[in-house]
Amino acid sequence: MNKNGSRTVSTILIVGVILAFLSLFYLSSKKQESSSGWVSPNGFLDPDSEWTDEANAYDGNETSFCWTLVPTYPAWTPYVYFTFASPISASEITYKLKGIDVAPATFLIDIDVSINGAWATVFREYQSDYPEQWYNISFEAGVVSQIRLRCQSTYAEKYFGLSEIKLWKFGG
Ligand SMILES: [Ca+2]
Model-level pTM? Predict the structure, then answer.
């Protein structure tokens, strides 16, 4: 093989190696896109402006929180909506409460998800704001674009705090 031929072979080899790396990078990024895991919202809607620090419910920081003053039964807070950049195939929500008041409080919490554009209630139960822990809610799998939440207090007016809320996305 002459010098030019050897150079051509080297060039083909180098291009081949680069293409192989690019393919691996592409495949691994595709896998990452489709892999399952917890996904935080990336936006919110608060039509009545009754909630405060809404983005704290999806900033990945368990010490920051979104909050509102909750009226006494049977009055509800207005809904706070959490939105996703693109709809997510999901079957579970996890959320963490923040206890703001020192005295124990019990809330009726109502959580809905928008599945294919229709609201479905996935959780409506009484819950104490203590302890501050993660709560998981499973629901019939669907393509979710928004979560909305409202609550009421069973005794007296109380502050309600939400540290984080996430959807379980399944891989494809
Ligand atoms: Ca937070």
Answer: 0.78
Distance 58 CA to ligand 1 centre (A): 6
Name the phi and psi angles at 133, rounded to 5. Answer: -145, 170
User: Cα of 22 to ligand 1 centre, how many Å?
Assistant: 37
Position 74, amino acid = P
Structure tokens at 153: 């207090």
61: CA distance to ligand 1 center in Å?
4
Which residues, other chains included, contact 162 with Cβ-Cβ below 8 Å and sequence gap of 6+?
57, 65, 66, 67, 95, 96, 97, 98, 149
Contact between residue 54 and residue 46 where contact means Cβ atoms under 8 Å apart = yes
**Which pLDDT tens digit goes with each residue over 93-106?**
999 999 887 567 88
> Is pLDDT larger for residue 31 or for residue 62?
62
- CATH code of 37-169, in short, is 2.60.120.260
* Tens-digit pLDDT profile for residues 24-34: 666 555 544 56
Spatial separation of the C-alpha atoms in residues 16 and 67, rounded to whole Å:
56
Residues 6+ apart with CB under 8 A from 101: 129, 158, 159
